Amino acid sequence: MNNTSVNFTSFTRIILKNLQEMLGENYSVFSQNVTKNNGIELTGVIAKRKGCNASPTIYINEFYHDGMAEPEIKQVVDMLYDDFQAAEFEDDVDLSEFIEFETAKKKIAFKLVHGEQNRELLKLIPHRLFYNLAMVFYYTVQETPFYGKAAILVYNTHMQRWGTNEEELYQIAMENTPALFPGVIDSMQDVMRGILEEGLKEEILPAEQGKEKSAISGENQTDDLAGQILEDVKEMKMPMYVLTNQQKLYGAACMLYPGVLKAFSEENGQDFYVLPSSVHEVILIPAEPGTNEALLREIVTEINRTQVAKDEVLADSIYYYSRNRDQIIWLS
Questions:
Q1: Per-residue CA distances from 219 to 204, 224, 234, 305 (Å)
Q2: Considering 42, 61, 202, 222, which has the largest number of Cβ atoms within 10 A of its Cβ?
Q3: Which superkingdom, per the lineage (predicted)?
Q4: What is the mean predicted confidence (pLDDT) over 277-293?
């Protein structure tokens, strides 16, 4: 490799060539362009081991930047090699249940995506619109090694092959999804504390390895730092709650679970705003007189632009749940 700047096409080609040499003849290394949620196009690198029906895919777009030279690409290749080694499947993934509808329907669930941003995709898949959002259906892979962390999107071709229709898929998904992925609501303080403690321990404990008091020292520092940051959260005038599912995967769908918002509203004795912070969760804010709805929308937009991956953005919108009407209303 030399110091000549390369474009993305050359970047991809160099990665494929070097990974193939490092992994050897037992693997076939190739790239594939994939259209993700919101029409985001990514380039995935796949390392398929001979005799195995499943292969990990690692998207490489985030590793590239203008002016990138070949020596820097070598670092990316080394990292990808380690990632592929760690993600390699030990055995074939059993997807036989997906073929027949009688078995597949037990694992059909739904998630929420933005309607307009996915308008081309929606032409190809069964869906149901909910204001500016769309409910789409997927088969959740519960087998080893995924255990619900992987999904197969249901296309019109699948629906036709199964001999079913959108209405039946909707009814099945509305029953399955809350059972497969139960909803949970936590205060923003609890969520922040969990994120901070996990992240800080990962940073602190490795530095403390080899010292007798490493675990104790790490936990104490974590509590202190998390406590300092959480003081800022406590200063917020609006109480905030996070609604997601136990797996924290496509958890924004929980806002449509029967009875979930109604129970939360009755418990708090208030209507509330629903802010879609990503496809994986929504934020609930109790409605108070004089709440600045325009500010809430700005908050959602800012989160989407700075904190959320483009393919995980749900909507630059806010919604309102009325407990008297037991209904979600799209405000903007």
A1: 9, 9, 22, 33
A2: 222
A3: Bacteria
A4: 92
Q: Find where tokens 């149901």 sit.
A: 128
pLDDT, tens digit, for every residue of 98-136? Answer: 999 999 999 999 999 999 999 999 999 999 999 999 999
The CA R_g of the chain, rounded to the nearest whole Å, is 23
Tell me the C-alpha distance between 331 and 294, whole Å. 10
Strand partners, 282: 243, 276
CA 194 to chain centre: 18
What strands, in cross-sheet order, belong to the sheet with 41-49? Answer: 27-35, 41-49, 57-59
C-beta separation of 217 from 211 below 8 A: yes
Of 233, 317, 232, the C-alpha closest to 277 is: 317
Q: With the CA atoms of 68, 73, 76 and 77 taken in that order, what torsion angle do they form, in degrees rounded to the nearest 10?
A: 160
Query: Rounded to an integer, what distance in angstroms lies between the CA atom of residue 220 and that of residue 52?
Result: 46
Rounded alpha-carbon distances, angstroms, from residue 28 to 20, 55, 93: 7, 10, 18
pLDDT of residue 148: 52
